[in-house]
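re: ur question from earlier - yeah i can do the single chain one, its not a big deal. heres the input i used so u can compare w yours
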Amino acid sequence: MRLRGKGRAALVLALVAVVGMAFRVSWNALRDIAGAVGADNTAATLYPFVVDGLMALALVATLVLADRDRTFALRVLGAYTAASLVLNYVHGLVPELHGRTVDWGRLADWDPANWALVLLATSLPVGSIYFGSDLVAKVLHHRPAPIPTASANAEKSTETASKRSTADPVESIPAPVTPNATALPRPVAVGFLKSTPPTKPLPSIAPAPAATIARRAVAAESTRPRRATGRVPTAAKSTRPKRTREQLLAEAQAATADWPDAKVTAEGIRRAVRTSPVNARMLRDTLLAERSAAQAEAVV
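and the output i got, formated as tokens:
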């Protein structure tokens, strides 16, 4: 159920009345606290406006600001609300504050608690100056977020649809006028009409002959079947006899006799002996094993 104008006004007035009565109750306690920490009569009277007034300012700022600024305003509101609650609580615990018979700067019997309460009461005015100025600056420099384009287009489409839904007035459409339908003002005899002068015939222009595009001769694909390739002739085959493993090892030993161990590689043996990579790796391993065995025997 949505409230209309009178209902909203009544709700706002009731809220203002409740807030005003609550401020009057808190004002009594904060005034006595201010007098206990050394404030004069004028300062003690204005002290509640410093604390509770900043609470109201922070509440208004939370309704205007957004994102980080709104979080900051909420923190200020929470901090000053907690501080006002603590001071009202202390005012209820210390009866001497009611008659202003308490010593200056003495809000509690325990010294650490008294120091903390005096620091809290005296720092609230300074905090009001800082946080209040910051909140006012944020509110003045705040710019509301622009309306999204999608919602604006939706509103325009709704307005256009509502306009189209209304019936358009019927307009009379004039009859089409044909050029041959014009009537002469009065009948005119055919004999008195002026003859139009004969026009000279224009010479006909012969069209230019189009150049013929010469076709290029394309070789036709041969449909003749290819002859099957026969076996490789014997003359084209290698005439070098196939060497055994012992022959390859003897050739590798002779070729690498003066090679250092670092140079004995499969690629080097393959080039020196002219054999396959598989045989070259086998020869490399065999030669390195023989050299290792020879070095071990020499050491012994």
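Residues 5-36 form the longest helix (32 residues). not sure if urs matches, ping me
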